[in-house]
Amino acid sequence: MTSVWVFIEQEGEKPSALGLELLAKGRELGEVTAIFLGPGSDAIFSTLGEHGAKTVLHVDSGDRLPSAPVAAALAERVAANSPDLILLGQAYNDRDVAGRLAARLGVGVLSNASDVRLNGGGVETDHEILGGTQTATASASQGPYIVLARPKSFVAEAVDGGTPFVEKLDLPEAGAAEAKIAESHFEEREGPQLGDAAIIVSGGRGLGSPEAYELVEKLGKQLKAATGATRAIVDAGWVPYAKQVGQTGKTVKPDVYIACGISGAMQHLVGMKDSKTIIAINKDADAPIFSIADLGVVGDVHKVLPKLIEALESR
Amino acid sequence: MKVIVCVKQIPDPATPYRLEEGSNWLIRPEEQILDDTDRYGVEMGLQIAQATEGTVTVVSMGPSGTGQGIRQALAMGADDAVLIEDGSLRGSDALTTARVLAAAIGRNDFDLVIAGTESTDGYSGVVPQMLAEILGVPALTYATKVETGDGTVTIHRQTVAGYDVVTADLPSVLSVTAGVVEPRYPTFKGIMDAKKKPIETLSMGDLGAERAPEQLVLSIVDAPERTGGRKIEDDGEAHQAIVALLAERKVI
């Protein structure tokens, strides 16, 4: 049976949503060992079991930056247990652990995968390339296969899994590669979040100025929506990186996505084109965003948005 | 402080990218530009070097072409450049890239290696971490703020919930997010000076780095295309159509 390791991180008091998505895919492919990073708890481990993990390798790095010690510990276990596939998410700690682990093992990383399949004795992965216009299927000439899958590629689902066997892994000293987490800051997360909101209102360069992003926020509030942004206005410093939707930001799949002053650069489209309904408002009638919008309004966001907000207020 | 900044020349993202028949490798024109993401790394490096009376060396792997992207980094103020160019490196994955960069960087002492979080054309997003592992140093990743102290570096590291303050001893590898600093535009003098700055060109034979096991592209197919729907011109009442669609989708 194919042996699959799935990397899952703790978020608050729970396993991350991304981790449970990966677990669903891992379970479909073989027997799953969950690599769990965080303080952990009986409730968490039993959730991992319910989602199909047979074994949990628990790593808790405390105030140490996890990547170097966790990669070192996992490399040792890979030598002992030889997993066929190590599945992680396209996320911060996942990327760090995958990169360091791959360098240790001398194998590559299949990044940004949207699907993973077994192929003969190996593993193959799908990747959306050239802004999602094409799908490439890739593999590597040598295992273990280390795969980073994009969030929202798989659907998390609890099955009738039993209680997993939990083993705590000791983390070795990483010597000169050691780094310390001195403090953690939690940004206030009020209102709906990009990851799970039913509606997302996003703004781009077409807003013209950072002040005009207020229109996006107002409309968002009115619709109880999360608010997002393109890379262009994040890079310009109008809004924080946490709001970025796209290739190098978040992947979102809400019921409704309202793109305000967004032309539709490939980098942005990849992150939102799977939204159920897309509404776009843009001055340029030839903007690429209109080629995927269910409803495209060729018009000035500064005129359309205030009227839209007013119309919603009076409903 | 001796600062190394990893940069990449990429085809202009404003032009459509094309793949070579057969190999499926990205076609790289003679004239490539400095990846926009790397301008933040170069700026960060310049600020640290200026504050510590240090130097900035840019290191890049890939076909030189006109070298315009490298000159852009030099025109911003970097002191010199190292370019690893070798036909055998075509189609390299992240690990081969990291091994080659590490071999070039590891020839001399350094304090900081700065890279972007991912390139705009390949976006594997794991090269800085691999580089750090090979060099045996910390990888302080996704930095939104950087401060250097006496033999240490402290960053604000982006997290899902906010940010962590992370500290490590030098030498270290940093990956910086766009927005960490405001990249300067090259001045006329900078552009002129860049023409005279040294670019050292290395091949695989100079480095002794080993290629990683090959990654294979098995097939490429067109993705199912999402087609646009209705497009209307705003006549002052277009917001009504939006309200109607939101109602139809039962979200209001």
Summed up:
With about 325 residues, chain A is α/β, with parallel strands linked by helices.
Write the layout of secondary structure elements.
The complex is a heterodimer of chains A (315) and B (252).
Chain A: E1 3-11, E2 14-15, H1 17-29, E3 31-37, H2 42-50, E4 53-59, H3 67-81, E5 85-89, H4 92-105, E6 109-119, E7 122-129, E8 134-140, E9 145-149, E10 165-168, E11 179-186, E12 199-203, H5 213-223, E13 226-229, H6 231-235, E14 256-260, H7 266-272, E15 277-282, E16 295-298, H8 301-313
Parallel strand pairs in A: 1-3, 1-5, 3-4, 4-10, 5-9, 6-9, 12-13, 12-14, 14-15, 15-16
Antiparallel strand pairs in A: 1-2, 6-7, 7-8
Helix pairs in contact in A: 3-4, 5-8
Chain B: E1 2-6, E2 9-10, E3 33-34, H1 36-51, E4 55-61, H2 68-76, E5 80-84, H3 94-105, E6 112-116, H4 127-135, E7 139-148, E8 152-158, E9 162-169, E10 172-176, H5 188-194, E11 199-202, H6 204-207, E12 215-222, E13 230-233, H7 238-248
Parallel strand pairs in B: 1-4, 1-6, 4-5, 5-11, 6-10, 7-10
Antiparallel strand pairs in B: 2-3, 7-8, 8-9
Characterization of the model:
The complex is a heterodimer of chains A (315) and B (252). Chain A has two domains: 175 residues, HUPs (Rossmann fold); 115 residues, TPP-binding domain (Rossmann fold). In chain A, helix 3 crosses helix 4 and helix 5 packs parallel to helix 8. Chain A is an alpha/beta fold. In chain A, strand 1 and strand 2 form a beta hairpin. In chain A, the strands form two sheets. In chain A, strands 1, 2, 3, 4, 5, 6, 7, 8, 9 and 10 form a ten-stranded mixed sheet that branches. Chain B has a single domain, classed as Rossmann fold. Chain B starts with a strand and ends with a helix. Chain B is globular, with a radius of gyration of 21 Å. With 252 residues, chain B is of the alpha/beta class. In chain B, strand 7 and strand 8 form a beta hairpin. Chain B has seven helices and 13 strands. At the A-B interface, helix 3, helix 4, strand 6, strand 7 and strand 8 of A face helix 3, helix 4, strand 7, strand 8 and strand 9 of B. Strand 16 of chain A pairs parallel with strand 13 of chain B, so a sheet runs across the interface.
